[in-house]
Write a structure and sequence with these properties.
With 94 residues, the protein is of the alpha+beta class. The chain contains two helices and three strands, in the order ααβββ.
């Protein structure tokens, strides 16, 4: 892995570490836009959700609880020996 790829991965990780995924105050569109400004290409963004039900025993009311389990960012970095782009992935568990 070259220095450019390491630097790109570090910049993406630094950006993602500043997002509070716990409160749900983020959007995939904004993440793509911000990372595009950092690396110069539109990344692939995949968010894995964890969903469940929470029941209030006093009232009997059930509410759906969702949280981000992980986020995966896909991008290209240079080319391999055959001239095909090197696809890189960064996965962060929240």
């Amino acid at each position: 892995m070259d220095a450019h790829t390491l630097m790109t991965e570090q910049m993406i990780q630094n950006y993602l570490s500043g997002i509070d995924f716990k409160n749900g105050n983020f959007s995939v569109t904004q993440i793509k836009s911000d990372i595009q400004r950092i690396i110069g290409e539109i990344p692939a963004v995949k968010i894995k959700w964890n969903a469940g039900q929470k029941m209030n025993e006093m009232t009997g009311v059930s509410t759906r609880v969702e949280s981000v389990e992980s986020i995966t960012i896909g991008f290209t970095s240079g080319e391999d020996a055959n001239g095909k782009p090197n696809v890189r992935k960064i996965e962060i568990y929240v």
